[in-house]
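Intended use. Records like the one below are meant for learning the mapping from a protein sequence to its folded structure. Do not use them to infer anything beyond what is encoded.
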Amino acid sequence: MRIEPETGGVSVVVLGDFNPAIFTPAWFALHGLLSESAADNADLKVASPQVTAFSTEWLDLQVTADRFQANTQQAPLIRVRDLAVRVFREHLHHTPLRVIGINRDVHFRVTDQATRDRIGRILAPPEPWGGWKDELDLGGEYGGMKSLTMSQFSPAGRPPGGQMNVTVEPSARIGSGRTGIYVNVNDHYAAGSGGPDARTELLGFLENDFDSSIQRSEGIVDHVMSLATNREG
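Structure written out for the chain above:
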């Protein structure tokens, strides 16, 4: 990437039918998915039939009745893919899975607020807003782009229901609300088949497409970063 992100990571999200209570650090250690030391030192925030959430040195995990989410901000990012594939392929063979998402997000800083606001104007021009544009475009102090999401439905080569969603916002985490930019890419995979074949298809997408998904996402992030110096967009 042309601008080094100050923070960011990758998450794998799986939608299905889960029993949150089993997803404790001890369960992951028992099945060799985490080391004993990682499980012993995990920060277990909650473990209940409704939700389990814990973090380790490299992993943040949260599971509810219909959502499994594994996040990491530390390289190698592929560890979250490997963890999710092993959980559902090796140990939870019969758990119904409906959707898988591969998500990349970054927070990066530009040189000044004027640059950040110029990127916002490239992505969301104020001119179509008529007279109101003059109230939106006063040096970034009184308004402008707050959040923009672009979606691509049914990417080529995927079953219907897949999509890519890209969100760009001022960063609430870095830059004191003035010079930081947040970009999130959600790469959403749906299964073309139903029933028990769906989980096999979805895990195949996760295992085989993870690297290319991250590369696509980083290409989009890199283009947003390029707007810091490319005034034409």
